[in-house]
Fold:
Amino acid sequence: MATGVLVASDQLDASRLGRTALIGELALDGSLRPVPGVMALVSAAQAAGACDAIVPAENAAEGAVVQGIRVRGARELREVTRHLAGLEPLTVVGPPSRDSESALDDAPDLVSIVGQAVARRTLEIAVAGRHNLAFTGPPGVGKTLLARSAAALLPLLDEREAAEVSRIHSVAGLSQPRASVSLRRPFRAPHHTISTQALVGGGPRIRPGEASLAHRGALFLDETLQFRADALDALRGPIDSGAVTIARVEGVLALPARFMLLAAFNPCPCGWFAVDGHECTCEDGTRRRYQARLSGPMRDRLDMIVFLAPISSFRRSAPPENSSAVSARVATAAAMQAERQGSANVDIPPGQLDEGTGFSSSVRAQLDTRARQLGLSMRRLHRAARVARTIADLAGSSLVRAEHVDEALLHRPKEVRP
Amino acid sequence: MIGVGTAGPTGGRPEPGAGSRATERECWIALSLVPGVGPAGFARLLARYGSAAAAWRAGPDALENLAPSRGQGNGGGGHSLRPDPREVARALQHATERAGGRTVTGLDEAYPPALRTLDPRPPTLFVIGPQSVFLERAVAIVGTRRASGYGISVATEIGDDLARAGVVVVSGLALGIDGAAHHAAVAAGRPSIAVLPSPIDRIYPPRHRPLARDLLRAGGAIVSEVAIGASIGRPDFARRNRIIAGLAEAVIVIEAPDRSGALLTASAANAIGRELYAVPGPIDAMASRGCNRLIADHQATLVTSSASLLRQIGLARGERPPTVNALSEVEGQILRHLFERSGSIEELVDRTRQPPASVASALAMLEARGLVNPFGGATFHPTLAAKRLAKVI
Structure:
């Protein structure tokens, strides 16, 4: 606008402006203030045919992610005019460096978690195939710690995904911690007091919720059963479709929200139900009501529920692996998936669970047998098959074998039994 | 005061001679329905007046005589003797038949023989299921509602062994141990008897309605001392437990914490002269405190195994179904560990020294074939079928 005035009043030559997009908030003193959503705006400008963009200096790194457009950062209007006048050109901000990943690393390392070999294994499977995983078990067994360590295990985003993620974060005004446009997948862990709106998005000025902020990453709900029931149920849509749909009078808006769900909860209010050698002090009805907070449909959308038992001793058979060893395997498995079907295993459509994805006819027959033996629904069977696919990937096997299917099935969410 | 009085819905005192045309059986049913007249009160009335009809004719005064020595009762005033015992009896029998059951009084041939010798005995019972189950040998299995995986596993094994040996399993259809015992009998296709603390048309707990249906389908019976429509505030577990002990020749307590209802059944069993057995548990397990104490105090005989229990009761193990197909090496190894001690998958990984992946897939295979049961999704127990395999592997 200000530039428009300058051009109109012949203080600036309009031709100099060319196909330059100017983004920013002009303060009264002539300085440029950072604005939210720069990345989305720059990419919109690029799509509209702009080949240059000048953005507030604070947003430069964020804007520079967009490819096919030169992005420059300016601190005040004077710099913009001098640049446009060709007096003092601003430098083009290069694409952000990709190697500053570990600087943000606040995820606990797996090396600090003693025992729980089974839970570690399922976490690796879940992260590799981006499956929804729940940890349950008594207090203090490491459910939260393990789930949080997933942040460091998630495979890196590819360029296209990174752009998607950054765009959402930019819209939400969250670009600060991701200034260097990380290839790391987001890891969101909202507190259980969160409102439904804050979880899935919406509000008078539509803002992405935690579900969208976790897009392409992980959404960790610690103490899952303490979340509002309607908030939990609102996640069903995004889990199914990978998007949050917000209906408004003006129309329907879909915000991307393809996340892997990590859950952690106690099996009952006292936490000790079914743990050998411990007494559960909960009344039967209390426990059932507590467990019912995870509704049947939500339980059905989990891929694995893993019970963590308290470790009985400090004796350990092998020193625990560190996160980087695990994440290396995860990355390999993720690459296999990308190469095979161009998506994570969790997103394989049911119709493609066939020879093309490594399910031989004998393994499909085994799945049918197990479905009959264990009384599984079709949805449960498909979910287990996808988990089995990931287990095979981790084993470096192009074919899914019987033992992969069985391991996947052991961790299937089971009906709550008396 | 007992539940007799001045302010009954029909005005208290029966019309003179109202009971004269009613049969003894009708008077018996009507009298046993009067609130506050428990088995003991009923027995005293019979002893004093010679017959239920005579006691009925004596009216509320007869009941007042009970007051000084009355042990139990709920003091529910407001109801008094209604004028016509025939109506009372007919209405109740009708309601009972509508619920698919029948009314059995102490006067009837069909009254369970095991209960005849009880003193006092329940005057009237309401029964669904064949009469013949009450003529078989019967053993009661009782225990806590908050059973551990161990308790469920033991109750299932003993229930199955007893049922296959041709014994009728008696229990209370409660959650936990009771349910496991009934389930085992039903799974073996043998009859069992469920004694309810509630009327026969209101299965308690409601969650066991399907179990009650299966139990009847397997030729079992459901019994209650509580009349349909009786306004009971709380289920009367003490009286129920006494019937459980009474119907059985022996009572087995599987898991019972201190002050458990199962211990009431145990003391009833001792009081009425039934054999009492208790299954021991870890000394630090609350759920086994009562059982361990029964054993320590020489109240109950220690159960060392299901087989030894059957021998002590004088039974031979029944037919066992054929075993399943061969197991893989890891599966066999896991089962052997589980026979030693049940445990979580984490423990099994530790004990078998196998990678988590192979333990998990082997467990899933075992679960699919019905050889292990993941209690609460946490602790794996070998199932009956697995125990039958025990000798093979």
